[in-house]
Amino acid sequence: MQSSQTQSYFLPGTEIEIINPALPRGQFRSVLFDFDGTLSLIREGWPDVMIPMMVEILAAQPTHEPEDQLYRLVEGFVMRLNGRQTIYQMIQLCEEIRQRGGTPEDPLVYKRMYYERLNRRIAGRIEGLRSGRIAREDMLLPGAIELLEALRRRGLTLYLASGTDEPFMKEEARLLGLTEYFNGGIFGALDDYRRFSKQMLIADMFRRHGLRGPQLLAFGDGFVEIENTKEFGGVAIGVASDEVRRCGINQWKRDRLVRAGADIIIPEYRQHAVLLEYLFPPDCGGAATG
Ligand SMILES: [Mg+2]
Predict the structure, then answer these.
(1) How far is the CA of 198 from the centre of ligand 1 (A)?
(2) Ligand 1 centroid vs 286 CA: distance in angstroms?
């Protein structure tokens, strides 16, 4: 709806929405995946931990708005920064504390508090994956493994990048059986947060492998990875999954990802075969196929 001149449309018989019909196809060499909400459901529900925690902290400051207003404010910046390392959300929290007359702790203190609360929520999932009580398919977006396999069969180099701390996300990727697919590497947030970002990783991919914009394909459910991909001229696929039902589109996510610049919106990877056929048309440069 919001895409400027061109009309968005759905690939026939699918929930795959082409937002930018002019996107360059068939040249992809590298694929960048976000982790949480894009492949993994282990941290599903994280905003319900982060947002109330921040509202609680801001409501305890010398001057503050009513809680419902605080909630909207926090939700706004938390989701705007989703995709960057967690510390950036905490840095913004510190700024908001200052604006309300408070004296914030170090952002790391809030990050630790958040991880502690989130870990309580997800501990059962991780333990379940470890013990085999939970099947890994139950903690993955549907069709994820099949998509990764298909991309590797096409000879693409796959990268996994997350704003979650690297030791956690590497272990979670391992538990989900994803590690082997990422021949380009697996990257997460570092303690020294200035040393890693998705933007830095993309810049490094371009430099090292002489990539050009249309050779980069990215999958993500956060604002940041979509924006970063578009900055480099790549093709961005917004994954607007309903993480609770594990099926169909979350409209709120979809609208945000379109605003961030996503070229295509998908719910999950059930229809990956149709998606890949579209992304790699048999006759490149020819007429668009359906
Ligand atoms: Mg994500």
Answers:
(1) 12
(2) 34
pLDDT of residue 243: 80
Is the pLDDT reported for residue 3 higher than 70?
no
* Number of neighbours of residue 149 by Cβ within 10 angstroms: 12
Residue 277 CA to ligand 1 center (angstroms) comes to: 25
Residue 83 and residue 43 in contact, taking contact as beta carbons nearer than 8 Å: no
Which residues of the chain form CATH 3.40.50.1000? 9-41+140-279
Q: Please give the distance, rounded to the nearest whole angstrom, from the Cα atom of residue 140 to the centre of ligand 1.
A: 13
Between CA 25 and CA 207, with CA 145 as vertex, the angle to 5 degrees is 50
- Give the pLDDT confidence of 132-145 residue by residue, as tens digits: 999 999 999 999 99
pLDDT band (50, 70, 90) for residue 116: very high
Distance 224 CA to ligand 1 centre (A): 9
CATH number at 9-41+140-279: 3.40.50.1000
Q: How far is the CA of 143 from the centre of ligand 1 (A)?
A: 17
Give the burial class of 12: count Cβ atoms within 10 A of its Cβ; 0-12 exposed, 13-18 middle, 19 or more buried.
exposed
Distance 163 CA to ligand 1 centre (A): 8
CA angle in degrees (0–180, nearest 5) for 109-115-119? 150
pLDDT tens sequence across 145-188: 999 999 999 999 999 999 999 999 999 999 999 999 999 999 99
Q: What is the pTM of this model?
A: 0.92
